[in-house]
Amino acid sequence: MDGIKGNRFAVFGRAGMDMFADPIGTKSEHAETFRADLGGSSANICAGLVKLGSQASLITSVSDDAVGRFCLNRLAHYGVDTSFIRVIGGEYRISLAVYESCVENFQNVIYRNGAVDFQVTEEDMDRVDYGRFSAAISAGTVFAAEPSRSATFRAFDNARAAGLPIIFDIDYRPYSWPSPEVAADVLSRAGEASDLIVGNDEEFGFMAGGIEKGFAKAQELARKPGRVVIYKMGEKGAITLADGQEYKTGIYAVDAIKPVGAGDSFMAGLLASIAAGHSLRDAVMRGSACASIVVSQPGCAPAMPTTAQLDAFLASHPGPTT
């Protein structure tokens, strides 16, 4: 965990634009107004980290158009370093997510045609100054297509050579992959190359070939000395596997207005809390609190809490479920 405690994160993955119907409760098809902000899992993690006092740099590609520049501007707004982002012309496009702030019949429409973030190359990864960072983070979506897949495995090698621990958010999105078989194989390879693995029960089950085998897969991965695995179970909490031990933690119950953004906020809260000196168990709980905060507010990046907001939530909210 020493690299995480260095609190300087290189983050691989996509930035995107989120458009969410306004006001809260409005279905997208009935909306007259949408709010726009930063989206994309890795960009959200970056924004969440910086809000919690960490340093984060996003390594990706964005389109040379107004929406790409919008994302660059929003990253800068949140204090995320963009010096390793390459701007690409042509017909490649930033991802767009259109969703609503409601839980019942929630809809999230994703546009990923010609996704620009898949155009990251090995040369892009070799240009990163790994000495600036103390840990590397990747979301699983970067492995769904080439050249991004090979480039990110190259980044893992570069990070390992620089002594950085590798943190992997499985983040399985079926629509991005050519087949479930390819995804299971590639994501398992990425997991084997990582030091801290975070995923939900469905994602570990997918890697194992069936949801009933998911926890056994998490246990298998956790057998490597020094590796930490966090097995998330939604409203049932999470199981942390580390150093031959397993312990379960609950969640902070809130009135959720949407189901998206929780995983990104959990990751940011977990890592920033470890960096701030909290124990692994407490860091998991603080990550869970971040997830609860984000699902109770509209948007993803704008809903990520600051340290003061997180501490206020913990001070005023009933303890986690058991």
Could you explain the architecture of this structure?
The chain is of the alpha/beta class and 322 residues long. Helices cover 36% and strands 21% of the residues. The chain has a single domain (2-309), classed as UDP-N-acetylmuramoyl-L-alanine:D-glutamate ligase, CATH 3.40.1190.20. The chain is built from eleven helices and 14 strands. It has an eight-stranded mixed sheet, sandwiched between helices. It has a four-stranded mixed sheet with strand order 3-2-7-8. It has a two-stranded parallel ribbon with strand order 5-6. Strand 7 and strand 8 (108-111) form a beta hairpin. Helix 2 packs parallel to helix 9 (262-275).
The CATH topology turns out to be UDP-N-acetylmuramoyl-L-alanine:D-glutamate ligase
| Number of separate domains | 1
Sheet with most strands: 8 strands, mixed
CATH superfamily: Ribokinase
Record the strand order, biggest sheet.
Answer: 4-1-9-10-11-12-13-14
Poorly predicted tracts of residues: none
Secondary-structure topology with pairs:
Blueprint: H1 2-5, E1 8-12, E2 16-22, E3 33-39, H2 41-51, E4 55-59, E5 61-63, H3 66-77, E6 86-88, E7 95-99, E8 108-111, H4 122-126, E9 135-139, H5 148-161, E10 166-169, H6 180-192, E11 196-200, H7 201-208, H8 214-222, E12 228-232, E13 238-242, E14 245-249, H9 262-275, H10 280-295, H11 307-316
Parallel strand pairs: 1-4, 1-9, 2-7, 5-6, 9-10, 10-11, 11-12
Antiparallel strand pairs: 2-3, 7-8, 12-13, 13-14
